[in-house]
């Protein structure tokens, strides 16, 4: 079973710019993934405003019975969130590594237009390797 079910990257406007499904059960269609990304962007923004703690950066972890949703927001407002198995540890490190891959292979790509869907083969190859490496590390623990 996969530790990570799916990965989403949302631009600062709330648009889904990347989606990758790693789980076989419960695969979502394109419209559902767009709705989920939009909903998460809105919930994240509302949580920043409603937080009793000043300087709150929004929801970082949402735990449910059947999944965990981990979120990392970059300084530019781009959000990286992953749906994973309940209780999956160290997802914050994986999301930060995915952000590094994003900056190295997407943002430095001269053909990529900001805020547009990501279509970069090198990013997807390195992303698959990072997720696979994380799965192997989880199995070894």
UniProtKB/TrEMBL annotation:
Recorded GO CC terms: endoplasmic reticulum; Golgi apparatus; TRAPP complex
Which keywords annotate this record? Endoplasmic reticulum, ER-Golgi transport, Golgi apparatus, Transport
Q: Which domain of life is it from?
A: Eukaryota
Q: Where in the cell is it found?
A: Endoplasmic reticulum; Golgi apparatus, cis-Golgi network; Golgi apparatus
Q: Which GO terms describe its biological process?
A: endoplasmic reticulum to Golgi vesicle-mediated transport
Chief place of localization: endoplasmic reticulum
Q: Per its UniProt record, what InterPro entries does this chain match? A: Longin-like_dom_sf (IPR011012), TRAPPC (IPR007233)
Query: Which Pfam families does the record match to this protein?
Result: Sybindin
According to the record's subunit comment, the protein's assembly and interactions are: Part of the multisubunit transport protein particle (TRAPP) complex.
Annotated family: Belongs to the TRAPP small subunits family. TRAPPC4 subfamily.
Task: State what protein this is by name.
Answer: Trafficking protein particle complex subunit
């Amino acid at each position: 079973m996969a530790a990570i079910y799916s990965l989403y990257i949302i631009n600062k406007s709330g648009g889904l710019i990347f989606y990758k499904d790693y789980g076989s059960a419960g695969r979502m269609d394109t419209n559902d993934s767009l709705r989920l990304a939009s909903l998460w962007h809105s919930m994240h923004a509302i949580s920043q405003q409603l937080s009793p703690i000043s300087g709150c950066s929004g929801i970082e972890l949402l735990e449910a019975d059947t999944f965990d949703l981990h979120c990392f927001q970059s300084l530019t407002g781009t959000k990286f969130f992953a749906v994973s198995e309940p209780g999956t540890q160290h997802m914050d490190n994986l999301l930060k590594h995915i952000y590094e891959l994003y900056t190295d292979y997407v943002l430095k790509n001269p053909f990529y237009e900001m805020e547009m869907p990501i279509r970069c083969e090198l990013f997807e190859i390195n992303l698959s390797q990072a997720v696979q490496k994380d799965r192997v590390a989880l199995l070894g623990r």
